[in-house]
């Protein structure tokens, strides 16, 4: 049994259901040593940021579907990045994104995953909300981020608890909707 399957089994046996799933796990580039191929970099980034998230959601969806949580509960939160915005890429709003093509595109793929699951879960009245924590000072960026990670965590909290089904399919940061 995989770790993800074991985690879902544990939640099932302990609680019988899950109200909110937050997919926060992500990597940005470390621990690259400099001699990795581009394929290895893409594989490393997509493995956690995309494949891992999809597998995680798949394992927990049955438990979310049996949740009896009233609004604003019953939802999946995806932690994305502004670097993954196609609209911003088109306008070259984050020129530095070019330095992080595997990371940025992995977040674009994550956004796409979110919209597919949003459609799948509509009838079950479970929401899928995408959030960007902003550029926070964390291990991910060797603590160069400008934002206090507690503010980033508040963004996740808001995405997990604010509103009801009307939040599904939205990508939010600081109370604003971001462009896909
Ligand atoms: N920091 C920013 O400026 C920023 C901006 C936009 C979006 N984000 C997103 O915010 C999320 C959180 O990042 P962070 O900034 O808090 O970075 P972080 O401090 O490096 O935390 C990343 C977390 O993901 C976990 N993780 C990484 N790979 C995993 C895997 N394969 N399986 C399970 N867990 C794994 C790590 O666990 P371990 O500690 O056990 O390795 C850690 O708890 C990420 O999705 C990131 O892309 C961050």
TrEMBL record:
Matching entries from InterPro entries are given as: Fungal_SecMetab_SDRs (IPR051468), NAD(P)-bd_dom_sf (IPR036291), Sc_DH/Rdtase_CS (IPR020904), SDR_fam (IPR002347)
Q: Name one GO molecular function term.
A: oxidoreductase activity
Q: Name one GO biological process term.
A: secondary metabolic process
Gene Ontology CC terms, in alphabetical order: cytoplasm
Which keywords accompany this UniProt record?
Answer: NADP
Q: Which SUPFAM superfamilies match?
A: NAD(P)-binding Rossmann-fold domains
Q: Which Pfam family is one of this chain's hits?
A: adh_short
Provide the family line: Belongs to the short-chain dehydrogenases/reductases (SDR) family.
Q: Under which name does UniProt file this protein?
A: NAD(P)-binding protein
